[in-house]
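Bench log, entry 3. Co-assembly request; chain sequences pasted below exactly as received.
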Amino acid sequence: MSKTEKLYYQDAYLRTFTAHVVAVRTLNGHTAVALDRTAFYPTGGGQPNDTGSLAGLRVIDALAEDDLVWHVLQAGQAGASKAGASNAGAPDAGALDPAALSGAAEMTGVLDWERRFDHMQQHTGQHVLSEAFIQFGNAHTVAFHLGSGAVTIDLDRSDLTHADLAAVEAAANAVIDRALPVKAAFVTNAELAKLPLRKQPAVAGAVRIVEVAGYDWSACGGTHLVNTAQIGLIKIIASERRGAELRIAFLCGGRARADYARLQGLAEGLVARFTTGQDEALGAVDRLVEEAKAIRKDLAALEGEWAESTAAAWWAEALPIGAWRVVSRVVEYPVERARRVAQVLKARPGTLIFLGVRAERPQLLFGRADDVTLNAGELLKAAAAAGGGRGGGRPEWAQGGVPSAEGLEVALAAALARVKQVAR
Ligand SMILES: [Zn+2]
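Structure output for the full assembly:
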């Protein structure tokens, strides 16, 4: 049974290596290659896989299975069938030819170093931060997630305050400042028993221990920096209670620097909009919010007054038909305002209201005072139909729409005719 020698265990900084193919298979339509040795880290222990190239072919995933590390190749790469050998063959547009790969000579693997180094910064940063949480408040890490965005750990304590998090962050960054060496080695069970492990390992047999010198020991199969200084920076960016646990989102090194640049852009945008200094920006936002509140209050009062006086003016021009006064007009206000005036008019005994609102979608608003026996819903239904539209509602209030402004006039005329007929 062949196995893959894990070069990343001896040297996490190895980015280029040579190896031979020991097995080839198809995995979800992709050709996957197992090598006798590799620097590609396969997904595991919370750390995502490496990507890169193998004999010039794109490697999009790496995964461990038993003792082998499989390198998943991107489909449809030209010349793949002769990988590592001569490139005289026809371009291959489909899946790679496994048989040709397995016969290939020694091939060169190259990691996407930026991606791997980022993973090392986040992962070593996580070890330091997790230990800082234990030292601060005996808060143990029960889960770790390294995604493409934020990195998270879940703590078994949810009662930490913002001040606590700031203290832990400061302690973790102090470990960066001390530039402590980081070493990884396989130890026997006897040696393991003597180590102050952060967490008991789940695996049996020889265990790989990652040590942040004199600070933290944990069982881990990941790739790590040579010393804590290379973490650069640990920044907690969010915390979220999840039952009895606390999820901490943080960024290390390059990710933290990129986030700083993003936040600086945000701050500069705010400052430019308010033409103020950064320290005054929050005050400017507060003033704007207060101002908007006051304006909304003023506007509501003015709209109330406007609705009252507009209703009085319309009522003065209302048509007396039988025992009723009918307010029938086409208006060009926003429909909310027209509705508001109608509501005021409804409070006047004997009043019938037929409003046509000119808008992109012309609307009909019909209403009546409580003492009027006519059914506004039925009136609107018939009137809207006459105007080529549709609508309806309750006896005291109804709404509808017609396709055009002319339709509004036709609908109102139909409603008026109907009222005259009933009043006779
Ligand atoms: Zn780890």
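The first strand starts at residue 5 and ends at 6. Residues 45, 123, 127, 220, 222 surround zinc ion (CB under 6 Å).
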